[in-house]
Write a structure and sequence with these properties.
Largest sheet: 5 strands, antiparallel
Structural class: alpha+beta
Number of domains: 1
Number of strands: 5
Order of helices and strands: HHEEEEEH
Number of helices: 3
Distance between the termini: 43 Å
Amino acid sequence: MQLSWQSFLYRLLDRQPTVGRLVSLCEENYDLLLRLAPELPHMEGDYRAHLPGHADLHLSILQRSRYTTLLRLTYLFEDGREAAEPDALLRVYHDAREVEAVELHQSVLPTGNLYEAPALANKWQVNWFITKWLGFCVSLDYRFETLTEEPAEALS
C-alpha cells in the first residue's frame, strides 16, 4: 500500500533528520515532481503550467546529462517587479529517482548555505519545504503537459 504524500509528510514531521530520512524526502520529491511533469525525463527548455485563479508555475531545464537534470521551478509573479518566489534550483537524479534542492530563494523560510554546519539540518529544512510546495502544486492539479505544446518563453 502506497501512502499519500500528506501521510508521508506527517510520518516524518516529528522526527530528527537523518541521512536516511533525507533520502526518503528526496525520493518523495521525485514522485511529486513527476506528477507535475510526467514527461520530465524528455523535456528540454522552458515550460509554464497555468491554473486559473493562481500564479503560473514555471519550469526551466537548465542542464541535462545521462542520469541527472538541473532545473529551475518557480512562480513568476507579474506585479510590476516580476518577482520569482519561491525560486528553487533542483537536481533530479533519474537513476536514483530523487530530487534534491540545490538552492532555494524565498522570503518566508530562512535558508542559509545548504552545506554549512549543520548541513544535514539545513538540507532537511530546504527539502522539506520543497516537498510541501510540490505537494501543494500537485493538490491544486498543476501540470506541465506533453512536449507537443509550445514551451513558455525563457525566464530571465
